[in-house]
Each structure stands twice: as structure tokens, then as C-alpha cells.
Fold:
Amino acid sequence: MTRRYYVTTPIYYVNGAPHIGHAYTSVAADVIARFKRLAGFDVFFLTGTDEHGQKVEQAAEAKGMQPQAFADAVATDFRDMYDTMDISYDDFIRTTEPRHVQAAQALWKKLEENGHIYLGAYEGWYATRDECFYGEEELIDGPDGRKVAPTGAAVEWVKEPSYFFNLSKFGDRLLELYETRPGFIEPASRRNEVKSFVKQGLRDLSVSRTSFNWGIPVPGDPKHVMYVWVDALANYLSAVGYPDETAARWAFWPPNLHLVGKDILRFHAIYWPALLMAADLPLPERVFSHGWWTIEGQKMSKSLGNVVDPRDLVKTFGLDAIRFFLMREMPFGGDSDLSRRAIITRMNVELANDLGNLAQRTLSQVARNCDGKLPAQGKQTDEDRELLATASLLPDIMHQQIDRQALTDALEEVWKLIRACNSYIDHQAPWKLKKTDPQRMADVLRVLTDALRIIATVLQPYMPGSMDRMLIQLGVEEGERSTFAALDVPLPAGRVLPKPEGVFPRYEEPEAS
Ligand code: MSP
Structure:
């Protein structure tokens, strides 16, 4: 039986251009999806855009555009960012697509049928920027003394007829879920925040709006549009064919992993499982929430004018340097700072020096001293065996880390091996063996190319383009690198390797001379 894996990113609001925060979640999900594919899983990697609601409507208005035309343009821009970042998504869902509208309405009807929706009137605070209702007690004092949301977003008093979802009835079941399946919310620190929020008691959730109409009409009462978060969360269902449980993709339900930023954990860890329970649907396995990037020490914001478009970084530093930086610099789950200095340091120390030089030194010696042909696996010393044993354990160790979303630790594991290879090459000094013991020189170089093959294979999910180039230089053909299982078959000796070329050049500051 094929093992399936369903991973999602949030669907992004189309109120503005894509930025580094969007790229970050998407690269993380991409690394996980690519890794699981290498491990032999049948993966469904979903992403997309969240196109309804007041925030998008207002952004369109500000541009003098119809919301749909505006959403079309921004969604296209998101896809362009995804192409630039080489995101291997299997489906890109847009909430204005008919397949989604139908699924969201079907979910609504199911909730209604099950007696979880009632008509009432909402009176309270709403923050359009967060598309979130807040209780009075959650508000804080803003800089000008006015009350604002805990996120700093402006709030307004809303009073309108509204349908409600009886969320308050699900508190105990949610707490039981967090107790019995601790892995449902990761990391643990965030799980505790969610638990205490639920323990305080949940209010019923207003799930429709009547004061604007850019949304999915409520079935049977089109004066109301569905609350954008209920609409948005339903995307995870619509992409797998809901409500048609005979759809081929339905086999992927429930998701193995929802990756989200810490700001939207509440929606995914409270509202979403409650809605699914109410609709009698199996729950996702895990919601993992990651931290936020600051930019050169400051919060990223339109008002500060420091919003980073990942495509600009790629132009300056190259795609894989940026993918690597994003996954390496921020311990996955924590917060971190994105700075030019930090990017350059990672590029020069870890990519150019540690990995790039290792490959270059090994391959240039094979080119020069082994006639450009892959040496045979020779007689191994304890040191050889130790290095290769560490290397061969790597895919499994990383797999366990990837399953815990420890994406940074997994990289650290690879770098331990890279550093070990660098000590090995210094210690064995194959360039000296050339004269004294050419057989041993060839054996050492073969140990190194075998270790490098494993290193480059496991790094493919993080840096697909560069690792492709490195694997080609190592003489590894496509079928020999598309699964971890392929690593069990040694490459034939004597294979002619292409001329080695540096994969990770050092980055020199243009202004520094
Ligand atoms: N549309 C909702 C999600 C609906 S999912 C059913 C939404 N969209 S968003 O466009 O605001 O994108 C949010 C994602 O980007 C979140 O996961 C958020 O954490 C992430 N980021 C936004 N700024 C960020 C940083 N500065 N750093 C890291 N991630 C950040 O919320």
C-alpha cells in the first residue's frame, strides 16, 4: 500500500503582493513535501489563495478594481513567486473557484443539518486586518490610547445579524483532543497557549456577515456571506473533492500536517477541529506553527516600507542560498531576523566553504588524478566505515526530524557529516597519497564521493537546483537520486564524471573592494 502524505500551507490573502513570510511557510512545506516524496510517499501538497472578505474587498477598492479582477491579478503574482521559489505544490486552490464555493457551502449545510448553526445578531469588536472577532477583554491600549487588537490591528464595533456556530459546546472535546493527542499542536509552548485560551471558555463564533457581500453566500440566505475564516479553512476540504467522498483525492483526507504561522494558530487549532468535529469529519494529524521573521531587526510592515519580496532576494543571492537561509537561520518554530549580513555569512561559511569546497576538492581530484572516472569501492579502513555508516543513517535520522518539523535540526545533522567529511579529507590527504599509495588515494576519493552522493541526495528538498547540479557532477543519474531507496545501489566504478564546476560561489559584497 502506498503511504500517503497530505501537507498544506495557509492560503494567502490576496490583499497585497507576496512577501517573505508567505515564501517562508511555502518553502518549509515544499521541503517537507519533497522529502516525503524521496522517502516513497504519495504526497499531496496544497497551497493557494484566500480571496474573499472585507480586507480583500477594501484592497481592491483602494486600487479602483473589482474584487475578482484584483484577486486574479494578485493570485497570478503569487504563482509567479512560487515559480521563482521552485515550490513543488500539487494543487493551488483559490477560494473564488466554483469547486471551493461548492465545498464550503456543503460544509455549511452539513453543520446546519447537524444542528450546529443558528441565527442571531453579532455585536462586538472586529479587526479587518486580522479578519478576526475579539472579545473586549482581549483588547489592549494602542499608541494613541484607542483600544486595538492584541496584534495591534485597529478594531471597529460591529453590529449586524449573523449566523453563529455553537463553538462553546466544543470546549471539552477540544481539551480532550489536546490531552489525548499532544502532537496535534506543535510546538509545545504554543499548545499551552491554545489550551489556556480554550480553558477560559469559548464563545459561539459569528460565521456570517451582512455588511458587505464579497464572500460565499450562505446557503438558503444569500443576504449573508460566510465569515472568511470558515470559507478559508474549508479549502483543505475542497481541494480533495469534498463533499464527494468517492473523489480520488479524498483518500488523502485527513491532512497529515497544516503548517501555519503563529498568528493564525487559533483558527487552525480551535475553530478548525471544532468545525470538523461538528461535520463528523476525521481531524488532521497535526498543526505546526512557526515563528516570524523580522527584517534587519525590525518588524516587517508596509508602514515601515521594509516588506521584503523574496524574488528580490533571489535576484541578489540566488534561489538556493535563500531557500537554505530561510530553513537554516530560523530554528523552525522560533522567531528570527533576516539580515543581509546573516545571509552572506550562511552562504560563505556553510555553502561555499563547508559544502562547496568539499565537493570541489573531491571532484577536482577525481578529475585530475583518477582520469575523471569514478573510482571503485575499495578496501575500507575503520575511519572509512565510520564515515560511511554515519552517512547511510542520514536519510532515516532526517526523516524522523522532518516528521517532527525539525527542519533546522535536520540540516544541522547534514552539516555534522559535511564537517566530518572535511576532517576526513584533511586527515587522509589524498593529494599526498597520489605518489605514495595511489590505490589508497582512489579508495579515499570513492569514500568521499559516496558520502557526497548521500549528502546531495538528502539536501535535494532544501536546494533542488544546486543539488541537481552537484549530483550530475557526481555522476548520479536521475533514477539514482529520485528516492532514498536508490541509495542502496552503489554507483558503478569507472563512470565518467563531467568536468567539476563550483556549485556555491562565495558571495562578495559588490561595494566592498
Ligand atoms: N488567509 C489567511 C490564512 C488562511 S488559511 C486557511 C492568512 N493569510 S496571510 O496572507 O495573512 O498569510 C499569512 C501567513 O504568512 C501566516 O502563516 C503568517 O504567519 C505568515 N507570515 C506573515 N508575516 C510573516 C513574517 N514576518 N514571518 C513569517 N511568517 C509570516 O493569514
Remarks:
- The chain has a mean pLDDT of 96.
- The longest helix spans residues 340-369.
- The pocket of 5'-O-[(L-methionyl)-sulphamoyl]adenosine is lined by residues 10-13, 21-22, 24-25, 50, 232-233, 235, 260-261, 263-264, 292-293, 300 (CB under 6 Å).
- The radius of gyration is 26 Å.
